[in-house]
User: Fold Mitochondrial import inner membrane translocase subunit Tim21 from Anopheles coluzzii.
Amino acid sequence: LLYLSNLVKGSTQLIAFNCAKSVIKQKFPAFCHKMSLLALRPLLVRQRNLSLSLLRYTRPLPSLVCRYSTGNAPNHSSKSLSAGSDRTDVSTDVRPIGERVKENTKTASYMGVILLGVGVTGMLFYVIFWELFSSDSPNNIYSEALERVKEEPRVKDALGAPIKGYGEETRRGRRTRVAHTQYVKDGVEYIRMQFHVQGFRNRGTVHLEKRKTDAGGYEYRYLFVQLDYNPHSPIILEDNRLQQDAMRSAASPMPQPFL
Assistant:
C-alpha cells in the first residue's frame, strides 16, 4: 500500500509540473524567453528528481515465487506415503509369545465350551422331541395304556370312575415318573412298564410289556390291572405271551441232532 501511495503521489506531481510548464509557455512566451538559466535550474532539478522517482516507482513488482508440489517434488511425498502404507502393513502386535499363546488357548477353550453346549442342547431337543412326538416313546406308551385302562368296563366297576393314573410314590408322598425298563432278548427289543391307577373306591397297579415287531412298531405281550384289595384276581386286558413264544419258536431253526 505504501508503494502504491508513493507511485500515485510522484505521478501527480510530474503531471502538475508539465501542465504548469505548458500553461506558462502558452500564456507568457516572452517571460519564458527572458527567464535566465539560473531561474529555471531549480525547476529542472525538481523535474529530474520527479522523473527518477517515477521510474523507480514504475519498476515491476518483485514476483512472489510460490513453489507448489509439482514436477519432481511429488516423488518424495509419494515415497513417504508408500513408506507409511508399508509401515501400516506390519503387525503392531508386540506382545510376548507366551501371552499370545495363552490368549489363543483361552479362545480355543471358549470355542470348545460353546461347541459342547451346542451339542448338549441339540441332544436335549432330540430327546424331548422323541419323548413327546414319537409313538414308541415311554411317555406315549404310558398314555395309550392309561386310556385303554380307563375305557375298560371291568376296571371302572372295580375302581370306580373317574380313574386317574400316576407313577411311583416316594416316602414324602410325591409321585415320580412312570417306571419302565427297556431290554433286548434274542435280538428283539422289549419295554416293560408299571404305573398306578386310582378311582373313587379302590386303587390298582397296571403291568404291561411290549415287544418290537419286524415292522418297527410295538405290540403288547401282556396288559393287566392288579387290584390292591384283591391282588390274586387281576383284570387281564391282553396276554399274548403264549402266541408270541410259539411264533418265535416256529421261526427259529430246529437244532440238529448230534451224530
In short: The longest strand covers residues 188-198. The beta strands are 164-166, 179-185, 188-198, 203-212, 218-227, 235-239. Residues 105-134 form one domain.
